[in-house]
Inverse folding.
């Protein structure tokens, strides 16, 4: 038996100027699906107030924020940790003075997200107003990490198209590039990644308790997030499932066809998902209100599903076209003046050429009820064209 493959080592680089902190909880839970985040860095000018809400996510909290209202913090922390604060200032990190935070609360229950997710804040001052000074810093560090040869992939968290060449270069070097950003992210950056995940979907999962941090326990929404950040990133209507029609329906059926084994007629659902992501890097069932691809395919209809011994799911299209042709051939012999025919009689007529058991149905009525264009009434049915003829006035 071959040993399990080692998980991918990933470098997570977050652009604090172009990625909201509202989805922080869901972000790291999503990254854990693809590998181990060996390096986690976030880039921003931490001397400015709350870039996209990230300051309250990763920097130390004030006494009031940690639930110590009414109690003076005093200057005891700075006196006791003067060597540490001096070292932090020399290395460019925020200190209780530069970040306007009077104290750290290291012990107890008020550990912030920096301690939970171990994200390293990287300071980059904005030398020119209106320019994102963090972009170049992030790209330089990304190239250093890329040429270190220690990683299998990168997670670029940003909605800025300036990182399109970086994602392309990562892929050109044989590594995987995962992108994370909002739904307004330019198409060029989305397509430059191997896979692109919308932060709105992760935010919605976190708010509904679906996303779990590394501890494995559901995480409560952080009330410290600014109202402005929540207003700029409202949760998507992921719970409202969108209809599967038009180009989306065609895409799903094409993916099934391209991954169907000609010998068996079955297509692995996992391979279908890989095909969809390769075709559209930003494809995600959560964009349409489905938690998983399997649920989306079941809603598509016209498919049969099964699992093998390894719990891998397969699906195949039910050949309804063939069934309709057989019913059309049976109709002249079995239908009455109104176009109705008995379902069991129709099943016996076509049973030698089409078996409901092959497609997972329990009986003929169970299979006929899934056919589009059949009108069912008790144990009788009629084709749509027969119903039209029966209801048409005489002489037409």
């Amino acid at each position: 038996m071959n040993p399990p493959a080692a998980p991918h080592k990933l470098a997570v680089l977050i652009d604090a100027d172009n990625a909201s902190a509202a989805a922080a909880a869901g972000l790291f839970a999503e990254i854990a699906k693809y590998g181990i985040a060996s390096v986690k860095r976030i880039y921003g000018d931490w001397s400015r107030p709350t870039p996209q809400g990230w300051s309250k996510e990763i920097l130390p909290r004030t006494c009031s924020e940690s639930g110590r209202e009414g109690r003076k913090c005093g200057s005891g922390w700075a006196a006791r940790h003067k060597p540490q604060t001096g070292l932090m200032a020399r290395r460019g990190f925020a200190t209780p003075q530069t970040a306007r935070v009077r104290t750290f609360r290291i012990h107890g229950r008020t550990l912030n997200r920096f301690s939970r997710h171990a994200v390293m804040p990287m300071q980059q001052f904005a030398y020119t107003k209106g320019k994102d000074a963090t972009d170049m810093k992030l790209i330089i560090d990304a190239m250093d990490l890329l040429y270190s040869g220690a990683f299998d992939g990168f997670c670029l968290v940003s909605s800025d198209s300036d990182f399109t060449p970086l994602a392309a270069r990562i892929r050109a070097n044989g590594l995987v590039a995962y992108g994370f950003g909002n739904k307004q992210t330019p198409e060029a950056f989305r397509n430059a990644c191997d896979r692109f995940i919308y932060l709105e979907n992760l935010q919605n999962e976190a708010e509904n308790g679906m996303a779990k941090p590394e501890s494995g326990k559901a995480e409560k929404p952080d009330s410290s997030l600014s109202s402005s950040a929540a207003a700029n990133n409202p949760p998507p209507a992921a719970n409202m499932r969108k209809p599967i029609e038009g180009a989306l329906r065609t895409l799903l059926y094409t993916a099934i066809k391209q991954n169907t084994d000609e010998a068996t007629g079955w297509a692995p659902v996992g391979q279908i998902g890989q095909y969809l992501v390769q075709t559209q890097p930003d494809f995600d069932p959560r964009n349409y209100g489905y938690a998983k691809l399997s649920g989306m395919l079941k809603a598509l209809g016209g498919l049969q599903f099964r699992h093998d011994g390894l719990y891998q799911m397969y699906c195949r299209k039910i050949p309804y076209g063939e069934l309709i042709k057989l019913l059309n051939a049976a109709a002249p012999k079995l239908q009455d003046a109104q176009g109705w025919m008995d379902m069991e009689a129709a099943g016996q007529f076509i049973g030698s050429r089409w078996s409901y058991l092959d497609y997972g149905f329990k009986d003929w009525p169970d299979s006929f009820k899934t056919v589009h264009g059949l009108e069912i009434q008790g144990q009788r049915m009629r084709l749509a064209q027969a119903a039209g003829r029966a209801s048409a006035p005489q002489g037409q």
The chain has three domains: 9-59+112-232, 246-317, 320-391.
